[in-house]
Amino acid sequence: MARRRGFGEVERRVSRSGQVTHRARYAMPDGTRYSRTLATKMDAEGWLAAEHALVDRDTWTPPRAREEAQARRQREAAFNTVGGYADRYLAERALRPNTLTGYRQLLDSRLLPTFREVPLVDVTLADIKSWRGSLDPKTDATNAAAYRLLRSLLQAAEEDELIDRAPPKIRGASTPGSSEWRGRRPLTSWPSSSTTCLSG
User: Fold this and answer.
1) Fewest CB within 10 A of the end CB: N or C in the chain?
2) Where is the composition biased (Polar residues) (predicted)?
C-alpha cells in the first residue's frame, strides 16, 4: 500500500524473491507522473523531498533531463581535466621534438601525478601551492619549469573559455635561483629543453 504524503507518495514493494524496495512517485500539475524505486523508505522519502524542493524553487525539470545534463557535465569534466587538456595542448602546438619530449617529461614526472584527474575549473591557488610544497627543493630548476608549464596550461584554458580565470601567479615560482630558491641545488641531469620551458 502506498503511503501518501504532502508531496507524492511512497509505496513499499516486495518482489517474488522477497526483496523489499520502496517506490517514490509524484504527479505534476499537468498530470505527468514521475517515480523512482529505491532500496529504503528513507531514500525514497529523501528523493521526494529533493524533488519537492526543486518545485518550490521553480527550478524543477524532468528527472530524465537532469540525469542527461549531469551525465553531459561529467563527460565534459572528464574531457577538461588537467591531464586531458594537457594532451590537447601539446598536440595543437607546433613544438620541436626535444621541446615536446621535455614538456611530456615534466607532465609525467611533476604535474600529472597530482593534477591528472582534476577538472581545470577546480584547480585553485591553494592546490598549486600545496603541489609546489610537495616537490623536492633540490630540483628547483625542474620545479620552476613544471610551474611555468602548469601556468601556461591554465592561461590557455582561460583563453579557450574553459575556466573563468587562471589562478594568480606565484611570485618567484617560475624562476630558479630566486629568493625563494636561493641556496638550493638545482637538478643538473634534467633535459635542457624542460628547464627552459615556457616563460611567465
Assistant:
1) N
2) 189-200
